[in-house]
Amino acid sequence: MALKAVHVSDVPNLDCVPDNASFALYATRFSKGVEMERATSFKVPKFLVIGHRGNGMNMLQSTDFRMKAVKENTILSFNTAGKHAVDYIEFDVQVTKDGCPIIFHDNFIYSEEDGSIYEKRVTELSLSEFLTYGPQRELGLEGKPLLRKTKDGKHLKWAVESDEHACTLQEAFEKVNPSLGFNIELKFDDYIVYQQHHLNDVLKAIVQVVVDHAKERPVIFSTFQPDAALLVKKLQNTYPVFFLTNGGNEIYDDVRRNSLEEAIKLCLEGGLEGIVSEVRGIFRHPAAVKKIKDLKLSLLTYGKLNNVAEAVYMQHLMGVDGVIVDLVKEITEAVSKMMRPSGGVEGKIAMEGEDQVVVEGTRPQFSQRELEFLLKLIPELIQQ
């Protein structure tokens, strides 16, 4: 398949990417994960593909059925992602009021009773109460309706093609293929100022489960909460800690969250191993990649652009270590083609005017004009 140029107006909304997205890279799951020296260093041996909330986040308002195929943050979603060449799965961990680490993204659970919608903060529920929402483990037992609030304030029924009950962090360790790495996002509310003792209690509960059940499984901690990132690094020195940042795309009261420069400073001050940036922050400030790598920090990205294979490949060329993606099947297949070892069989190259075009089955090789086109395309995609 030849490399095709498309007009920006023809690029779909980024929550609905066509099946024939044209590019891709190699990701073979590695059994022993990243190379670690007791977290004093962290070396990524290959370009990583990480499944977002397992097999991809749920976007209930999307017209793309893939965004509603499997319930996010469930054992089913994790094992579905594991059927493809992902290296890690990323998921969100919070702690219930009775001290149990559970896997759930949103700060609030929404449900309906007698025609009225109500909300409850996840961390103010006990484990037993949390598990009463949505599908139940026992056959024939019906749970409380589970709704989700969209960014525009609508409450939608959390309806997906393949549903499953909620799970705890311990269950994930017990029921997911042990060769699949875990990227554990330590989830906190952006609008709460947490006291040190509270962060300490929450993080100790999570770390204890990891220590007790991880065994040889590769594990990465990540969080948007700067103090939590620093504290979890102090609580343990076995697993690497990454700081999550929007890379300047949004502004917060805590200045440490507002730029890649601040993220770098936090990592250096706290001895963290890397940064996970919203991908637009990287494309807007490409020079930051070299700085991050020169400082021996690892760099991963997240965001809707990571569902576009061209954007993923550009990051590989820039030196990014890995991407967190929703379209696990499509991107892992794309990566497997793009990242074929250079010593492999070369495919045929057709010449069209001044451009070099690579046919299907070859490792991507771009002319200067093609690279310039891609570099121009990315900023326009970012603005959408």
Can you offer a commentary on this structure?
The chain is an alpha/beta fold and 384 residues long. It has one domain: Phosphatidylinositol (PI) phosphodiesterase (TIM Barrel). It is 28% helix and 20% strand. It contains 11 helices and 18 strands. It has helices at 75-81, 127-130, 169-175, 196-213, 226-235, 260-270, 279-284, 287-294, 309-318, 328-338, 368-382, and strands at residues 35-36, 42-43, 48-52, 88-95, 101-103, 108-113, 116-121, 147-149, 155-157, 167-168, 181-186, 219-223, 241-245, 274-278, 298-302, 322-325, 349-352, 355-358. It has an 8-stranded parallel β-barrel, surrounded by 6 helices. Strand 8 (147-149) and strand 9 form a beta hairpin. The longest helix has 18 residues, at 196-213. The radius of gyration is 21 Å and the shape is globular.
Q: Supply the number of helical segments.
A: 11
Please, what is the CATH homologous superfamily?
A: Phosphatidylinositol (PI) phosphodiesterase
User: In whole angstroms, how far apart are the ends?
Assistant: 27 Å
What's the number of extended β-strand segments? 18
**What is the domain tally?**
1
- CATH fold category name: TIM Barrel
* Sheet of most strands: 8 strands, parallel, barrel
Radius of gyration: 21 Å
Estimate the mean pLDDT confidence. 85
Order of strands across the widest beta sheet?
A: 3-4-11-12-13-14-15-16
Report low-confidence residues grouped into runs of 5 or more.
1-34, 36-40, 343-363
Task: Encode the helix/strand succession as letters.
Answer: EEEHEEEEHEEEHEHEHEHEHHEHEHEEH
Keywords: Glycerol metabolism, Hydrolase
Protein name: glycerophosphodiester phosphodiesterase
Domain GP-PDE: 47-335
GO molecular function, one term: glycerophosphodiester phosphodiesterase activity
